[in-house]
Specification:
Elements: H1 22-44, H2 53-71, E1 82-83, E2 85-90, E3 103-116, H3 121-137, E4 141-145, E5 149-154, E6 163-170, E7 175-186, E8 200-201
Antiparallel strand pairs: 1-8, 2-3, 3-7, 4-5, 5-6, 6-7
């Protein structure tokens, strides 16, 4: 008699790991840098734009000069020489919590002020109206007005400076004052406020010619 034939046992298929799709791998590659970038943005906040102090100074002095000429104060009293000063700017983002009320040495704002006392109201109001009319013609927008005067701003666009002009007359002392200033910006390497020739301004001298652009190195 023939022996019964044994049926071969079915072979088990080797287990294979599920393959990740190319889309999945690409999503991981993109998500990791985006996550890191988001954390850095939360920590550092919006970066300050780079500033060229020389060009900022020339611009502010030009505004101060125009306001002085438009005031046409009797006798053209001297209000200078004065300097473009820098102001304190602070850390942004969550990092500011670790630096409360601590200014940054590499980021500064810029401003220039002049004033004259004993100005009659008629002369002061006439000067203010000439400056106001000129600012509106040039596209400046009003920020605030009151019995003393007004404040106008000229937006510089995304990432650019925003200039402010403030013109006031104080009845109590007859003080006619003009302030021009701009936003915070990152200083270039090697900038020394105390050895900064372009900061000097005297309204009795012709305004400076804008210098060639100087690249500002962010820190």
């Amino acid at each position: 008699m023939n022996a019964p034939r044994l049926r071969p046992l079915p072979r088990s298929r080797p287990r294979t790991r599920p393959r990740r799709s190319r889309r999945g791998r690409a999503a991981v590659v993109v998500a990791v840098p985006l996550g890191v970038a988001a954390l850095l943005w939360l920590w550092y906040g919006t970066p300050y734009p780079a500033a060229d102090p020389d060009r900022v100074a020339v611009r502010l002095k030009g505004e101060a000069q125009r306001a002085y000429d438009e005031a046409a104060l009797p006798g053209r009293p001297g209000v200078g020489p004065v300097r473009v000063d820098t102001g304190t700017c602070y850390y942004r983002g969550l990092r500011s919590v670790a630096h409360i009320d601590q200014g940054r040495s590499d980021v500064r704002s810029f401003g220039l002020d002049w004033r004259v006392t004993g100005v009659a109201e008629d002369a002061a109001r006439s000067g203010q109206e000439r400056t106001r009319a000129r600012l509106e013609r040039e596209g400046w927008t009003v920020v605030s007005t009151d019995e003393r005067g007004f404040r106008y701003r000229l937006p510089g666009g995304e990432g650019a400076d925003e200039d402010i002009v403030d013109v006031e007359w104080h009845h109590e002392t007859g003080t006619y004052s003009v302030s021009v200033f701009t936003d915070c910006g990152k200083l270039p390497d090697g900038f020394d406020e105390y050895r900064w020739p372009e900061a000097e301004w005297d309204p009795r001298k012709a305004p400076s010619t804008p210098p060639a652009p100087r690249p500002a190195t962010p820190r």
